[in-house]
Amino acid sequence: MQGxxxxxxxxxxxxxxxxxxxxxxxxxxxxxxSVQPGERVALLGAxxxxxxxLLRALCGLETLDPGQGRxxxxxxxxxxxxxxxxxxxxMRHGIGIIFQQFNLAGRLPLLTNVLTGVAAQTxxxxxxxxxxxxxxxxxxxxxxxxxxxADQAFQRSSTLSGGQQQRAAVARCxxxxxxxxxxxxPVASLDPESTxxxxxxxxxxxxxxxxxxxxxxxxxxxxxxxxxxxIALRQGELVFDGPTSVLTPGFLRxxxxxxxxxxxxxxxxxxxxxxxxxxxxxxxxxxxxxxEARAA
Length: 296
Hints:
alpha/beta; Rossmann fold; five-stranded antiparallel sheet; 10 helices; globular
């Protein structure tokens, strides 16, 4: 990585407090870090550590507390002092986010769900009526071909397996043209084989497109296998930022005490295998679209 590159993410003194009936609850406490383009970073922590709040703040779905907190994405200030930048919607074009729940419209075909990735860049009347351009449709179909879901393009999303739906959520980010992918527990509800396929897909995106990955994970085994760096949170505080290779059971128990047990998965949920995807298309291409995907 070039030292002169603009960081993909800069977080400075991020703090967030939720006000509940039981009183204020601190979710983040002056968290600061940066992520370089092309890094694979695992966001690790026990339940309630602040991982989801942090990811939501990175794409502007959550505003930080007033004060010194600041979030920059691709060199632009997304939010500062508890206020979102007026251009936040435009900045989100370069940020993809996937959740544990998939967030697909079950009654709509898979292709339509994937096409929502370009909705923000499409005239409102086209989005509301589903009249996407032929170029948009071709691009979405090529992405589905590349991730092995072309045969399901016109199936209702509700008929797909959990792993297929999560891969479709990733495809939506690809069609969107995201350079930064935020994943909030993306495999928590999946079986081992689906977990492997989704994580292999994320790894392939990083290696072939240099997409920056920041992935919230609940099991250290996945962090060690798929990410090179870990940012560990505990009760809203950043307690470790370094290589995933140091994440031994003893190290985790030093960080989290008995709460480390929910992070340590002695029986690995998956095994690393070579990515099965022959090559994802460049989304900047124009028709004749993505010949490398068609050749595959």
